[in-house]
Amino acid sequence: MPLKLLTSTEARETLHETRTIWSAGLKIDEYYDYNEMQQLDPWGRRNLALYGFETGDGQIAASLKLYRLTMTSRGRDFPFFGVGAIFSRNKFRGRGFGGKIVQAVVEKAKAENQAGLLLFSDIGLAFYEQYGFREVGSVEVSVTVDPDRIQRDKLAAVDYDVCPLYTSDLEILERHHRRWLRQRPFGVRRSLDYFAYKVRKENYLHKYSRLPWPMLHVITVKGQSHTDMAYAIYEIGGASLRVLELVSAPALVEDIWKAIFQEALRNECNRIKSWESNILDFAPGYSLKSFLVSTIYKTDFAPTIYYSRRNWGKAMILPLDNKVSPWLRSFPSPILELDHL
User: What are phi and psi of 125, to 5 degrees?
Assistant: First the structure.
């Protein structure tokens, strides 16, 4: 079979070329360390591998990262392949090897009785659609933050904690994420190891990248009951506060949004950005504006809200199990940004 698990030497040769695309501001040695860290991580050792497409004469023409994920829907788990970093080596460009390695990993998924495959496209949809992948979310939401039009007294009434994500209690976040996920149409189920794997990746980039890679922070709000909690993971870039994910008990949706606006004001941000998954609590009406006017903004001054399609990180699923196919009709998409592969 042309799809093969790469040796350490073959992986290093592939990484030497992919660094020009995915180095994220890391020096070459740091980029090698960053990828090795992922593979040696407790979760990565069990669930991440680098595969290549081998030509007839034994050369590696293309490569990808293959993740073993568990997707969940209404209490039922589904084994999934996650696919990332699909790359055709320079001397093999233009010969269809990118498509061949995608076809090969789809066949591997079928042979291993996977329920489907998940990927995030940065190159548009058409390439992956020809192999059966379908988009499940690429909407980005942007809300203006106008200090003069916000009811600051209402925001101040909310008590919340904020800290860097890597110092937070991941066990508590994982527990509440798991509880929240039971009510979603589908999503990526996170073990504690998987959550920690994601946090270590982000922290490495913040620490070593030559780009202004933001540190992730987490806001937590607690309710009257120990089972009631909300958290929001965010980063700040320029004058924008980006909410990567928002997980909330129903009773705390209003409070967590007030805490987010407090953080935006505290950091002098003029805009809050978010994936559509973070406004699921307003579906099916999708009325974020009505919610903000009634809870945060002065009634005479409605906030400006923009909806746009991302040109990166477009979540796509290829269903192999018939029970997965209905997920394609879910809107807004419940996929969270921290699960980007």
Answer: -105, -30
